[in-house]
Design a protein that fits this description.
single chain, 366 residues, alpha+beta, 8-stranded antiparallel beta sheet, two-stranded parallel sheet, 35% helix, globular, disordered N terminus, disordered C terminus
Length: 366
């Protein structure tokens, strides 16, 4: 049902985080392949009247996102239907995908995808992953062992596009560069610090990436831009806009979340990501949000939103992925985005197909 170029329903996003809808998309975003956010459009899951939230209507949501008029007919026949989503900067790589799942218990379906990381498990490029418990401890990262290419890249870290690190992180890695074991420990330490900072402060806790000869890349600003675009569109309910922008504040009573690290291979490059996946219910419609708020290389960040809508005897899954990647910026950006979106979509759909098949019969969703 989903995943991002990393792991699980995650998509595509490895990146919907807990979701696993983010994997392919995220990888893609970074190299136009592995899953990647952000920066960009957010899923029009709900149509909101000024000052009030109405129930999510599947056809209205499809129309708002710009899906073809025959989308319901095609998804009913088992097809995946894709649409390009608007961009807000030259780093945006955005895609929407709609598909049908046989199961009718939508809340249980979303819970299973998030808790069991179905997309992550369906992703053949995932090397390893591990959950963070609460604010996290060093023990949560003990299963993480860098690959040889990664260890060399971290040991030689410097400001630039080849690796995503803050100046303080680069300094710590340089101090450990002569000891391979120390490099692994330094990377585990920086991941734990980033996890704790994001969990405590949300977007404000995301450290920037140092770049050579130009200002730092700030994933927090990329994600904030995506959320501003969503709010301006008036498509989603105000409560969800507030949650996307203000997390960890404004969490509703039914809020459920997962945090984890993922090590995966994106187009031949070993990549590390930190993911946050959370689930809320809006007018009986479960919605999953997946963020990759740190990515070691290839792209900057990713945000994916998935809505599970009623569709006869099944569930219509609406998935949107917004990836921020420098690889589509500059001259020829339109052509780069078209190619990247095609690659991303193919990878995501393969992950979603494997996830959907793995769910088994409707009796599994309870």
């Amino acid at each position: 049902m989903a995943a991002a170029t990393r792991p699980h329903f995650r998509a595509a996003h490895k990146q919907i985080g807990g979701l696993a809808f983010t994997s392919p998309a995220m990888r893609l975003a970074g190299t136009h392949a592995k899953t990647a956010s952000v920066a960009i459009a957010v899923l029009a899951l709900v149509i909101v009247a000024p000052g009030a939230v109405r129930a999510i209507d599947p056809q209205t949501a499809l129309d708002a996102l710009g899906f073809p008029g025959d989308t319901r007919t095609r998804t009913d026949a088992g097809a995946f239907v894709e649409v390009a989503l608007p961009t807000r900067s030259d780093r945006d790589l955005n895609v929407g995908i709609a598909f049908l799942v046989a199961e009718r218990s939508r809340v249980a379906l979303a819970r299973i995808v998030r808790e069991e990381k179905r997309v992550l498990h369906a992703d053949p490029d995932v090397i390893a992953y591990g959950d963070f418990v609460g604010e996290g401890t060093a023990a949560d990262l003990q299963r993480l062992t860098l690959t040889s290419p990664q260890r060399r890249a971290f040991a030689a870290a410097a400001p630039g596009d080849s690796i995503n690190l803050s100046l303080d992180e680069i300094a710590a890695l340089r101090a450990a560069a002569g000891d391979l074991h120390a490099v692994d420990e330094a990377v585990r330490a920086l991941l734990l610090v980033r996890h704790r900072a994001y969990r405590a402060k949300g977007l404000a806790g995301i450290a920037p990436y140092a770049r050579a000869r130009r200002s730092a890349m700030r994933p927090s600003e990329e994600l904030a831009a995506v959320n501003r675009g969503a709010r301006a569109s008036r498509i989603l309910p105000t409560q969800l806009y507030d949650l996307l922008e203000r997390y960890p504040d404004d969490r509703p009573p039914d809020f459920a979340e997962s945090f984890y690290w993922v090590l995966f291979r994106a187009h031949g490059a070993d990549t590390l990501a930190l993911e946050h996946v959370f689930q809320v219910t809006i007018d009986e419609t479960p919605v999953l949000v997946q963020r990759q708020y740190y990515v070691s290389a290839g792209y900057n960040c990713v945000q994916a939103i998935v809505a599970f809508l009623p569709a006869g005897d099944g569930t219509l899954v609406l998935y949107t992925n917004s990836t921020s990647t420098d690889q589509v910026a500059g001259p020829g950006g339109g052509a780069k985005r078209a190619i990247g979106r095609t690659v991303m979509t193919r990878q995501l759909e393969k992950l979603f197909a494997a996830t959907r098949a793995g769910l088994g019969s409707a009796s599994e969703v309870r």
